[in-house]
Amino acid sequence: MNNNTKLNQVLMQGLAIPETMIDESLSYQSIPEWDSMAHMYLMSEIEQTFGISLDTTDMLEMTSVENIRKKLAQHQVVFEQEA
User: How does pLDDT run across 7-29, given as a tens digit for each residue?
Assistant: First the structure.
C-alpha cells in the first residue's frame, strides 16, 4: 500500500468521510467532522501509520491535507505522484 493510500485511509477513518471528500484543500474545521477531537485522533493515527513522532509544532501546522503531506515529507515520508 502506498503512502497516498495510507494517508487517505487515515483521513477517511479519522473523519468518517468518503474518499471523494479528500483533496489538498480539505482542512481543519472546513467540515464539521474535522474538529479539535478529530484532529488529535488524526495526529495519533498518522504517527502510528507512518512510524513517526510529531512534536506539538508539527501537529499545529498540520491543518490541511496539503500541510500534512508537507510535514510528512519532512519526516522522509515519500508520496508518489498520481498519474
Answer: 999 999 999 999 999 999 999 99
Q: Which amino acid is at 11?
A: L
User: Has this prediction a pTM greater than 0.85?
Assistant: yes
Nearest Cα to 19, choosing from 7, 29, 27? 7
Q: What is the spatial distance between Cα 34 and Cα 17, in angstroms, rounded to a whole number?
A: 10
CB 74 within 8 A of CB 35: no
Q: Distance of CA 12 to CAs 8, 50, 55, 74, Å?
A: 6, 16, 23, 23
User: 33 and 16 in contact (C-beta within 8 Å)?
Assistant: yes
Which cell numbers hold the place of 12? 477517511
Q: How far apart are CA 15 and CA 9, in angstroms?
A: 10
